[in-house]
Design a protein that fits this description.
By secondary structure, the protein is mainly α. About 70% of the residues lie in helices and about 0% in strands. The protein has a single domain, classed as Orthogonal Bundle (MetI-like fold), CATH 1.10.3720.
């Protein structure tokens, strides 16, 4: 009788299995995915138009009916615009901005960090000095300055029309609003790739000294082959964890910049500028700032929990420690029960 040959599970299959055991991370992943997918259908889900103004309905409290008989589940703002509608559209803008900024920054950081760490020499020296120079400036201060310049000179800054139109379609905004969002993205990307590059460079410096990389190099493998086959796959797990942390940071940073008036501008809704307007009325209507604050808090915490789950899944040592702790606790419970009986 022959036994079937079972193909061993691959690395990413094992990682996904370990990630699924982290229930909090899985629920957070479902939550973020649901919010983002629903935001893509904002025009279908939203009960009102995004910029529909009705001053008679201004400051309507949540779960109540406005003077004209319309119902607003999260109330209305100072212009009578429905909070729930704008929250859905703002989720589309804020999350897409954070995802785009983090993805592009990470890709740039990977390329620069891989090049500097693998080849070393003059390439590493020049890259390291450039990263150190950019990192000497306070990032958020530069964001404020660059955001102010971009807002004041938005019509004079050349942005490809196709790019603005593409962002406009994705975020359900017009071309002018899309151009404004693109400028904010470019500012974040220009200042956000350095941390990833420094992180990747440090890992590559360690990986390139491993025996399997040196053996491949001795056998005549090309640099590109070594990078794609040996260096990058071993550097990816920490990069993925860093990506989730960067995603949470980008979401909070964009919200903070828009809150201060140097980011995405009204009427384009983002959670940050919604909080900025609501903050002006917090003493008379204390519920207003809570509406845009909750999604920022919930999404940033959810992304961080996803990062924790990925860290545990990508690090077998952490997973084995957790398994060992559960096993020891189970054995202790069995011994205690046996002693009691």
């Amino acid at each position: 009788m022959t036994t079937p040959n079972h193909r061993p599970a691959g690395q990413w299959t094992l990682i996904f299995r370990r990630f699924k055991t982290h229930r909090v991370a899985m629920w957070c992943l479902y939550l973020i995915t649901t919010i983002y997918v629903l935001s893509m259908f904002a025009s279908v889900i939203a009960p009102y138009k995004r910029d529909a103004i009705s001053l008679d309905n201004a400051y309507t409290t949540p779960f109540s009916t406005a003077p004209d008989g319309s119902y607003h589940v999260f109330g209305t703002d100072h212009l009578g615009r429905d909070f729930f509608t704008r929250l859905i559209y703002a989720a589309r803008v804020s999350l897409t901005t954070a995802i785009t900024v983090t993805t592009v920054s990470t890709l740039i950081g990977i390329v620069v960090g891989l090049t500097a760490g693998y080849f070393g020499g003059i390439v590493d020296t020049i890259t390291s000095r450039m990263i150190e120079f950019i990192s000497t400036f306070p990032t958020f201060t530069l964001l404020l300055i660059a955001g102010s310049i971009a807002i004041q000179n938005s019509d004079d800054i050349p942005i490809p029309a196709l790019l603005s139109q593409t962002i406009g379609v994705i975020m359900a905004v017009n071309e002018r609003e899309g151009k404004q969002v693109v400028m904010i993205m470019v500012i974040f990307i220009a200042l956000g790739w350095t941390g990833v590059a420094r992180f990747v460079r440090g890992m590559v410096l360690s990986i390139r000294e491993q025996l399997y990389v040196e053996s491949s190099r001795a056998l005549g493998a090309s640099h590109l082959h070594n990078i794609i086959t040996h260096v990058l796959p071993n550097a990816m797990p920490p990069i993925i964890v860093a990506y989730t942390l960067g995603l949470s940071g980008a979401l909070v940073a964009e919200s903070a910049l828009s809150f201060l008036g140097f980011g995405i501008q009204d009427p384009t809704p983002s959670w940050g500028n919604m909080l900025s307007f609501a903050n002006s009325y917090m003493f008379n209507y204390p519920w207003m700032p809570l509406v845009p604050t909750l999604p920022i808090l919930v999404c940033s915490l959810a992304i961080n929990y996803i990062g924790d789950g990925l860290r545990d899944a990508l690090d077998p040592r952490v997973q084995s420690e957790v398994t060992r702790a559960k096993r020891d606790a189970l054995l202790k419970a069995i011994r205690d029960r046996s002693a009691a009986s």
